[in-house]
């Protein structure tokens, strides 16, 4: 072998040195890739991963709505007359009974009005009695032809005027007594006293707010649903009514079905705790709210301990049954942009990627409809899997996979 300006001669043949080196490098690289690729394929074929077989389930999905809690009765106590606050009989937060005195306003002026009206009534009655006696006297004289009948008619007219004066005086006295009664402000029903902004000696004008009275033996929770949810709910109620009608062979009013067949609803308080008493869905508003397209529903909750107050906040939680859905563990999925994916395993244990859109989350699982019973997915180790490889599946125990279902089902979105 001899070299000559970048060429070498082997067995009387000349070769370019660069070409020879390129061929040698490609042969070595190809051998290395073949070796590594063979090892990788061998590892994939030997990869053992747990596989879950999907089966349809029936679940009840809790759904929560922000609620506004209001007292069963809530009334603003306002002054109906002008005057000074003389006495306050209650304190803020007191439980009062119906007709119990709350405030006493200055009543001297109204007492004088009552006295004046009473005196006027007495005078009017005296005049009416005198006019009545005059009519009786003239009747005798007219019968004896001492006076003409016109005199009797005149006396009768005066008697009618006196009787009208009596009625007017009675009305004035009644109004004066009503005004006097307004100076003592009483509770309209049993309830709790709210804040009292005015103190003793304060000057009140007609319409000034003295306090609020709230009856919280029971409370109402108002929440809003969309038009689609409303239609779904009402169609379900109408279907129940039809089934009941066929069973009992009688017509059932939809409102009655709403009251009798309504779901039992839970209330989640602002601290995340579930209220001890369940509520009953009662009714809804008459029309949809302009702009939002929502409609308000009302739930009644008992409040024997007085825990709930007017104006509190919380969430009502309803359960929605779902039939023939699949629960896909979140750990078996991965997301790319707006899509969620799983690795499906076919009959030949070959892995393929599939996308799906979950209906929501149920604890640590996705709720999915578009699967078939018997479909198999890779449960764990998805970071080791690639599309198109074959694996050695290990069947996952269904009870172990869904053991956390009851503990996490409350976290539904």
* The first-level CATH class name of the largest domain: Mainly Beta
Number of DSSP strand runs: 23
Helix and strand composition category: alpha+beta
| Rg result | 45 Å
> What is the H level of CATH, i.e. the homologous superfamily of the largest domain?
RNA polymerase II/Efflux pump adaptor protein, barrel-sandwich hybrid domain
What summary fits the major beta sheet? 6 strands, mixed
Mean pLDDT, to the nearest integer, reads 82
In the CATH hierarchy, the architecture of the largest domain is Beta Barrel
Strand content: 35-45%
Q: Domains counted in the coordinates: how many? A: 4
Q: Spans of 5+ residues with little confidence (pLDDT < 50)?
A: 1-7, 9-44, 249-262, 408-413
SSE string, helix = H, strand = E? EEEHEEEEEHHEEEEHHEEEEEEEEEEEHH
Distance between the termini: 79 Å
Give helix % range. 25-40%
Q: Overall 3D geometry?
A: elongated
CATH structural fold name of the largest domain: OB fold (Dihydrolipoamide Acetyltransferase, E2P)
Helix run count: 7
Notable traits:
single chain; 413 residues; alpha+beta; conserved putative lor/sdh protein from methanococcus maripaludis s2 fold; Elongation Factor Tu (Ef-tu), domain 3; 4 domains; 6-stranded mixed β-sheet; 6-stranded antiparallel beta barrel; 7 helices; 23 strands; elongated; disordered N terminus; disordered C terminus
Walk me through the topology.
Elements: E1 2-4, E2 7-10, E3 13-16, H1 17-45, E4 48-53, E5 57-78, E6 83-88, E7 95-96, E8 101-105, H2 108-143, H3 149-181, E9 184-186, E10 191-193, E11 203-204, E12 209-226, H4 227-248, H5 254-260, E13 264-269, E14 279-284, E15 294-302, E16 313-329, E17 334-336, E18 339-345, E19 351-356, E20 360-362, E21 365-368, E22 376-378, E23 392-395, H6 398-401, H7 405-408
Parallel strand pairs: 4-23
Antiparallel strand pairs: 1-2, 2-3, 4-22, 5-12, 5-16, 6-8, 6-11, 7-10, 8-9, 10-12, 12-15, 13-14, 13-16, 14-15, 16-21, 17-18, 18-19, 18-22, 20-21
Helix pairs in contact: 2-3
């Amino acid at each position: 072998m001899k070299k000559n300006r970048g060429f070498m001669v082997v067995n009387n043949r000349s070769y370019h040195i660069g070409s020879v080196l390129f061929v040698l490098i490609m042969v070595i690289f190809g051998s290395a890739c073949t070796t590594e690729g063979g090892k990788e394929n061998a590892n994939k074929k030997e990869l053992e991963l747990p596989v879950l077989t999907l089966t349809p389930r029936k679940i009840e999905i809790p759904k929560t709505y922000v609620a506004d809690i209001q007292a069963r009765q809530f009334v603003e106590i306002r002054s109906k007359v002008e005057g000074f606050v003389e006495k306050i009989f209650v304190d803020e937060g007191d439980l009062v009974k119906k007709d119990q005195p709350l405030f006493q306003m200055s009543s001297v002026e109204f007492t004088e009005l009552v006295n004046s009206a009473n005196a006027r009534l007495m005078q009017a009655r005296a005049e009416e009695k005198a006019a009545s006696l005059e009519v009786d006297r003239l009747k005798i004289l007219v019968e004896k032809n001492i006076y003409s009948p016109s005199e009797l008619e005149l006396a009768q007219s005066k008697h009618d005027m006196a009787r009208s004066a009596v009625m007017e005086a009675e009305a004035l006295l009644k109004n004066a007594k009503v005004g006097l009664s307004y100076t003592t402000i009483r509770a309209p029903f049993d309830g709790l006293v709210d804040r009292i902004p005015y103190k003793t000696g304060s000057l009140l004008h007609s319409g000034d707010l003295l306090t609020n009275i709230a009856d919280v033996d029971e409370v109402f929770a108002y929440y809003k649903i969309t038009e689609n949810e409303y239609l779904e709910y009402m169609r379900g109620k109408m279907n129940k009514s039809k089934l009941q009608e066929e069973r009992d062979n009688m017509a059932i009013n939809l409102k009655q079905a709403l009251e009798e067949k309504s779901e039992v609803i839970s209330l989640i308080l602002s601290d995340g705790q579930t209220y001890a008493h369940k509520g009953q869905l009662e009714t809804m508003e008459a029309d949809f709210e302009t702009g939002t397209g929502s409609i308000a529903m009302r739930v009644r909750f008992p409040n024997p301990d007085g825990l709930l107050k007017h104006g509190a906040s919380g969430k009502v939680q309803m359960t929605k049954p779902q039939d023939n859905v699949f629960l896909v563990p979140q750990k078996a999925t991965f997301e790319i942009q707006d899509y969620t994916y799983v690795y499906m395993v076919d009959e030949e244990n070959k892995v393929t990627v599939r996308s799906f859109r979950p209906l929501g989350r149920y604890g640590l699982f996705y709720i999915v409809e578009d699967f078939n019973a018997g479909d198999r997915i890779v449960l764990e180790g998805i970071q080791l899997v690639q599309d198109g490889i074959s694996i050695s599946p290990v069947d996952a125990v269904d009870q172990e996979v869904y053991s956390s279902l009851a503990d996490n089902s409350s976290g539904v979105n």
